[in-house]
Amino acid sequence: MAICMHGLDLSFMKTKESQDHIARMRERHAEERRERQFRGKRSDVPFPMFVPDIQPFVSVATQDPVVISSRKQLRDYERAHNIRQVGDDIRAADIIAENAAKKAEWEAVAATVEHGWTD
Hints:
Layout: H1 16-37, E1 57-59, E2 66-68, H2 71-80, H3 92-112
Antiparallel strand pairs: 1-2
């Protein structure tokens, strides 16, 4: 649909205030362009990234432990056994160490109790 602007009165846009407003907006946009220009040399375009191979480890997810030494081998192993990594795995050693630290802390507190501490 075409809109005809012939005969439209736009004289209100020629006031001093509107001209000042337009000048301020143009200056602000020019400043934003200058800021974007000098932010840095990097762009938003993705680029290749080097990801090193994984360290060999023993997977015990199945009955037969398997040594996995590459990402391809890990990918094939996961596909063959219908396994997915979730990325928030907690190592048992971390839990054991945390529990041992809590137990030592509790024992230290229990030693200060006059009549002892029983579980």
